[in-house]
């Protein structure tokens, strides 16, 4: 299964629309996962055209998104327990704070955003992935492509634009 993972799109507050590369990647995906800071529901609806989408609330998401998105999400894909949240607070310690939210559930993958920095961290069968920000500082915009196959290690590709 091919999964497009993105976060921190910040449309329309930081960009008028999503970069074309986001659409190209989502077109190839079987599932789109968004780790929060859509800002407006239109981004969710836009991405929904390409593949089924799941998302969580970010700290910049308004009331229109709060009506239907949770702060955390847990589900199984290809036999792997996946947990999602946006994250909060300073960059320092973010990974540890996010991990502590899901420790009792023993996930295989934790997805998060907030820091605007791509992070791929593996330890004891756990993959923690922050796809970076679609609308981050110039030269630091990214998302991720996650390949999941039951019984196999998840494969991660950083997509830069």
Give a brief outline of the structure.
The chain contains 4 helices and 10 strands; from the N terminus they run βαβαβαββαβββββ. The chain is α/β, with parallel strands linked by helices and 161 residues long. β1, α1 and β2 form a beta-alpha-beta unit.
How do the helices and strands line up, and which of them pair or pack?
Layout: E1 2-6, H1 20-28, E2 31-34, H2 41-47, E3 53-55, H3 63-66, E4 72-77, E5 80-85, H4 94-102, E6 109-111, E7 118-123, E8 126-131, E9 142-147, E10 155-160
Written account of the structure:
- The protein is an alpha/beta fold and 161 residues long.
- The chain has one domain (2-160): Purple Acid Phosphatase, chain A, domain 2 (4-Layer Sandwich), CATH 3.60.21.
- Helices cover 18% and strands 32% of the residues.
- The chain is built from four helices and ten strands, in the order βαβαβαββαβββββ.
- The chain has helices spanning 20-28, 41-47, 63-66, 94-102; strands at residues 2-6, 31-34, 53-55, 72-77, 80-85, 109-111, 118-123, 126-131, 142-147, 155-160.
- It has a five-stranded mixed beta sheet with strand order 3-2-1-9-10, with helices on one face. A five-stranded mixed beta sheet has the order 4-5-6-8-7, covered by helices on one side.
- α1 links the parallel β1 and β2.
- The two termini are 23 Å apart.
- The mean pLDDT is 95.
């Amino acid at each position: 299964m091919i999964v497009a993972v993105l976060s921190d799109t910040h449309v329309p507050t930081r960009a008028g629309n999503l970069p074309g590369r986001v659409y190209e990647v989502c077109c190839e995906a079987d599932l789109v996962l968004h780790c929060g800071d859509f800002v407006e529901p239109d981004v969710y609806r836009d991405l929904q055209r390409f593949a089924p989408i799941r998302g969580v609330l970010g700290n910049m998401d308004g009331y229109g998104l709060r009506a239907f998105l949770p702060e955390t999400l847990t589900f199984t894909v290809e036999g792997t327990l996946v947990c999602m949240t946006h994250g909060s607070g300073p960059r320092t310690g973010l990974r540890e704070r996010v991990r502590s939210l899901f420790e009792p559930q023993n996930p295989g993958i934790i997805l998060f955003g907030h820091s605007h920095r791509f992070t791929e961290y593996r330890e004891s069968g756990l993959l923690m992935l922050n796809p970076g920000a679609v609308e981050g500082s110039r030269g630091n915009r990214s998302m991720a492509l996650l390949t999941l196959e039951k019984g196999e290690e998840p494969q991660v590709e950083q997509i830069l634009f």
